[in-house]
């Protein structure tokens, strides 16, 4: 596409491919290479959709860059990028809309804050993610992503010393995972 449209002409397909290359390098553990392609993709997306325009692809790239920053050990930068992505997802899908992209970003924010040792700060994003995931999939529908958030909430409560609360969430996560994967797994 760069040949067809010119080296410096932004194109959606090129931006997507740059993002995909960044994810490929992330999977290979090449954080610097991943960051390079993701930043290139982000710059092109901003040219295409507008510097300050909320767009799902821009939010996705910010979220991917957050994952790279976390792997590089820059948890503050990872948090900033993830909060930017979350804010943009909320603008794209609606601030009060239950959407899986928002729920996953909230879960990831809780996980990141937990990793940073901010146990109090991690609880609200986890709880909001859990509520949203249950709304998306159904309150009584067993789903792996709901179980994962239940488990993380259990781990958080354990780390805060609330062993009874931790056990409740971990038991609920286990019961749901057994429904999802089968009793013999």
From TrEMBL:
Record's SMART domains?
TPR
Source superkingdom: Eukaryota
Q: What is this protein called?
A: MalT-like TPR region domain-containing protein
Please tell me the species this chain comes from.
Rhizochromulina marina
């Amino acid at each position: 596409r760069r040949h067809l449209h010119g080296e410096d002409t932004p194109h959606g397909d090129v931006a997507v491919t740059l993002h995909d290359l960044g994810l490929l390098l992330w999977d290979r553990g090449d954080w610097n290479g991943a960051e390079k392609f993701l930043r290139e993709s982000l710059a092109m997306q901003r040219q295409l959709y507008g510097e300050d325009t909320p767009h799902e692809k821009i939010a996705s790239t910010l979220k991917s860059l957050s994952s790279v920053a976390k792997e590089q050990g820059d948890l503050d930068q990872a948090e900033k990028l993830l909060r930017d992505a979350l804010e943009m997802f909320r603008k794209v899908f609606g601030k009060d809309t239950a959407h899986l992209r928002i729920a996953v970003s909230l879960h990831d924010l809780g996980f990141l804050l937990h990793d940073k040792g901010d146990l109090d700060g991690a609880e609200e994003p986890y709880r909001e993610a859990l509520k949203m995931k249950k709304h998306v999939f159904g309150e009584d529908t067993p789903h792996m992503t709901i179980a994962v958030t239940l488990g993380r909430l259990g781990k958080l409560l354990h780390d805060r010393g609330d062993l009874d609360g931790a056990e409740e969430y971990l038991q609920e996560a286990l019961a749901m995972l057994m429904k999802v994967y089968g009793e013999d797994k």
